[in-house]
Amino acid sequence: MIVRIWMGVLFLVIPVLAGCSVYKSSYSYQPRPLEAQIEVEEEVVARVLLSVVGIRRVDKDAGFPQEIEIRVRIENRSSSELTFLTEDLLLVSADLVPFLSPRFGENQGRVIPAKENRTLTFYFGFPEREKGERKPDLDGLNLNWAVACRSKKVTVSSTFERAYYGDDDYYPYNSYWRFGFGYRGSYCY
User: What contacts 57, CB < 8 A, 6 or more positions away?
Assistant: First the structure.
């Protein structure tokens, strides 16, 4: 009898403890991915795909605050090297509140050789707030970024909108409290 009770407890508790996501699941952004073509001297020199991966929860063990994770894939299509200018990165919320300067993923070269691809990940921390000050409006995000190729700088602004999934066939379980398993992974809200 005791064995059955413990098996039942383990069956219910272990998936819950092991399955919590590092992302706040109520925040998803579109388009996913956003595509941009970079032109220099009327030639497409790069294709860039950008995606808001999600809003990461606070990671006390690693010492990271709540952050917005953005992933960028740069496909250099030119015969020249391309540089992703990280000093020009700026993320603002829908109410134009700027986020902190980004933290970069490890071992990410920002220079992309000719005809090569590179994926970069950036983590933007939330701005400090004074007591009583409102949180940033996360219904939209705008990322300002730039690349340099052939001694020319190209600055681009990319806008993402928060996606709300209602009661439709693809996202049928749009409740706040749920646990799930399968191809979409486990959830903890």
Answer: 22, 23, 24, 66
What fold is seen in the domain 29-161?
Immunoglobulin-like (2.60.40)
Cα gap 23→3, rounded to integer Å: 35
Distance CA 41, CA 36 (A): 16
Indicate the residue type of 180. Answer: G
Q: How far apart are CA 47 and CA 165, in angstroms?
A: 29
Strands (E), 18-169: 29-30, 34-40, 43-56, 67-76, 82-84, 90-93, 103-104, 111-112, 117-125, 140-149, 152-162
User: Tokens for 155?
Assistant: 């600055």
pLDDT in tens, 60-116: 998 899 999 999 999 999 999 999 999 999 999 999 999 999 998 876 788 999 999
Report how far residue 60's alpha carbon sits from residue 108's, in angstroms, rounded to the nearest whole number: 24
Q: With 0-12 CB in 10 A as exposed, 13-18 as middle and 19+ as buried, what is 91?
A: buried
